[in-house]
Specification:
30% helix; 621 residues; alpha/beta; 6-stranded mixed sheet
């Protein structure tokens, strides 16, 4: 990487590596051309400050991108349709141009009159007509514009629904004629090398004059790579793809469109554009058919983007009588609450802790990452499962099954479960403090400076859950819960009837543990479900059913937006939500199906902290 990286407090320069050598030159010439600033790690030596980005294809433990398409009944009515026509051949007795001949055939055979023509088809039109012996297939966008023409009969047109997340990009390749998903792919968002979370990328743009262009290039290159991979898997030339629908949070939305997201870095968090957009793929550097269209769903507010609009389109809270809460849990959680009468939305800055960042043994979801945890409340002995194996750690054959990848760390769903289980087992109290007195009972409780940690796994790589890990999750979940409480206040809603977790991470959260932790308000656990990749499903619906575009555009205009950053009660709700599950809220549904942990005698350290806080408060009053 080349540039200043405030996050690491260094200036990275390619010159801080040893010079490009003969072996690398030979490799680049004979095997695979090395791109700009790419080096072979076995040949380059570090000679100064560097930030090194390991590309996904070189990573041993690649992230598992879990954003599969759901099975859903969607009424098929795409924006782009195919029409096979027989065009009147050119004739000396008739001076009509070939384009007019095509338009006449479309009117005669399909009753499509007064069609416009995308200029991109003109250079090859005459050749195409003659190659097809005057029989061609035309793609018409919104019954008004011819945007592609192929010789002969073509049975299917294809489109792609894309969800651009801050961490991952997911895409579904769809047969627009049959309404069938033919391939699904996901990849790490290549922008991640500029910063783990959204605001770090905005900071990068603010600190580097060329930063916005770099980030735009990175995300478009990633999208084009994904399109190529999808086409390769399905045997479809990307040039034959005619339609894209796109969702993403506001910063991803702006960077994909080539818009500088600087204004989203501070109040009043102004969007450059919030309405839906219909664009030509060629105008934004997307490698599909040059006449292909890109539809971008509308944004809701400064930090509630087109992905939240896609989530609303997929989950339909605006059509329900019951109070519905839809949450996309990520580095920036997007929250929608309400019913057919009133819908409100906000975002909450949860940060990257849920994705493994800022956690001592944290990592993204890849093979070897702990994703499920159970702790015996009597012995405090844990057992767990890892991504890539169906076995639990106490099952016969677990070590052999995980030998290749090993137990490498703990991902987001795993850290939520282990902290919830630590609370249920009495290892941490409602304030999130690890109880050091339990060290007399179990060797799993280990001293860690002035605090205590829980030893989850003692193998080739020791995995501890530290006091700081607990705090990071408390901070993240408190921000999310506070945002939900603000929406409940504004809507006057005390009871939530239905909760849906959206997003790749949300899809793998166990509802019980999410509620134990206090990530979400109390609700009947049978009504708390995963929505899968709801944002991507919204993009898919908009791709296959064009009237849904008008529906979501109208719905978004009616959504009330709450800006958590300027709400005076946010801090109060945040402090209360730091407790597990909550300082004030009772959670009757939750504790009707699980036992509340028995209160333990207060430790001397905890007692001293409470007395200090009480004394400080008394002095102020």
């Amino acid at each position: 990487m080349d540039g200043d990286f405030a996050k690491h407090a260094i200036r990275s320069r390619p010159e801080n590596l040893s010079p490009f050598n003969e072996i690398e030159a030979r490799y680049s010439e004979r095997r695979q051309r090395l791109a700009h600033n790419h080096r072979l790690s076995c040949q380059a030596t570090v000679q100064g400050d560097l930030v090194i980005d390991v590309p996904p294809e070189s990573q041993m433990h690649r992230q598992v991108v879990r954003k599969e398409a759901e099975l859903r009944d969607i009424k098929l009515d795409p924006a782009t349709r195919l029409y096979h026509v027989e065009v009147q051949p050119a004739d000396l007795q008739e001076s009509t141009g070939d384009l007019q001949r095509l338009c006449n055939a479309m009117a005669r055979e399909w009753k499509l009159a007064d069609l416009d023509c995308d200029p991109v088809i003109l250079p090859e039109l005459q050749h195409t007509l003659r190659e097809g012996n005057w029989r061609v297939t035309a793609a018409v966008h919104r019954q008004s514009t011819i945007m592609a023409v192929w010789p002969g009969f073509r049975p299917a047109a294809h489109g792609i629904a894309i969800d651009i997340g801050s961490t991952t990009i997911a895409a579904h390749l769809v047969d627009l004629t049959a309404g069938k998903v033919v391939a699904t792919k996901g990849m790490m968002n290549p922008q991640i090398r500029f910063g783990e979370d959204l605001m770090s990328r905005v900071s990068y743009v603010m600190m580097h004059p060329e930063g916005a262009a770099e980030l735009t290039h990175a995300v478009r290159e990633g999208v084009n790579d994904l399109i190529g991979e999808l086409g390769g898997e399905a045997g479809i030339d990307p040039a034959d793809i005619v339609e894209l629908t796109v969702v993403g949070n506001p910063i991803m939305h702006h960077l994909f469109l080539g818009l500088n997201p600087r204004e989203l870095g501070g109040a009043p968090f102004a969007l450059a554009v919030d309405t839906a957009l219909d664009l030509k793929a060629r105008d934004i550097g997307i490698g599909i058919h040059p006449g292909g269209n890109v539809y971008v769903l509308p944004c809701i507010a400064g930090h509630v983007g087109a992905d939240a609009a896609g989530m609303v389109l997929a989950e339909e809270p605006h059509l329900l009588d019951e109070n519905s809460l839809v949450v996309d849990v990520g580095t920036n959680a997007e929250i929608v609450l309400g019913n057919r009468d009133r819908l409100l939305a906000c975002s909450s800055p949860t940060g990257p802790a849920f994705e493994g960042a800022q956690i001592s043994a944290g990592q993204r979801a890849s093979r070897g990452a702990i994703e499920r945890v159970r702790i015996d409340p009597r012995t405090l002995e844990p057992r767990f499962s890892v991504i890539g194996s169906d076995l639990w750690s106490d099952d016969p054959g677990f070590e052999e099954a995980t030998q290749a990848a090993g137990v490498t760390g703990i991902c987001g769903s795993g850290i939520i479960e282990v902290i919830a289980e630590m609370y249920l087992a009495g290892i941490i109290n409602g304030d999130g403090v690890v109880d050091g007195s339990l060290a007399a009972r179990s060797e799993r409780i280990v001293a860690d400076g002035r605090t205590w940690s829980f030893l989850l796994h003692d193998g080739a790589q020791q995995i501890l859950v530290t006091q700081n890990d607990v705090r990071q999750i408390q901070l993240a979940k408190a921000a999310l819960y506070a945002g939900i409480r603000l929406l409940q206040d504004r809507a006057g809603i005390e009871r939530i009837d239905r909760i849906r977790f959206a997003g790749a991470f949300g899809s793998h959260i166990d509802p019980k543990y999410a509620m134990v932790l206090g990530l979400i308000p109390d609700c009947d656990l049978n009504r708390v479900e995963s929505a899968g990749n709801a944002a991507g499903m919204g993009a898919l619906i908009a791709l296959l059913h064009v009237p849904a575009r008008a529906e979501i555009e109208a719905a978004v205009r009616k959504i009330e937006k709450i800006e958590t950053a300027v709400e005076p009660k946010f801090q109060e709700y945040f402090v209360d939500a730091m407790a597990i599950p909550h300082k004030r809220d009772a959670f009757p549904h939750l504790f009707s199906v699980i036992d509340r942990p028995a209160a333990r005698p207060e430790s001397a350290d905890t007692g001293r902290r409470r007395r200090r806080r009480a004394g400080s408060a008394g002095g102020k009053s």
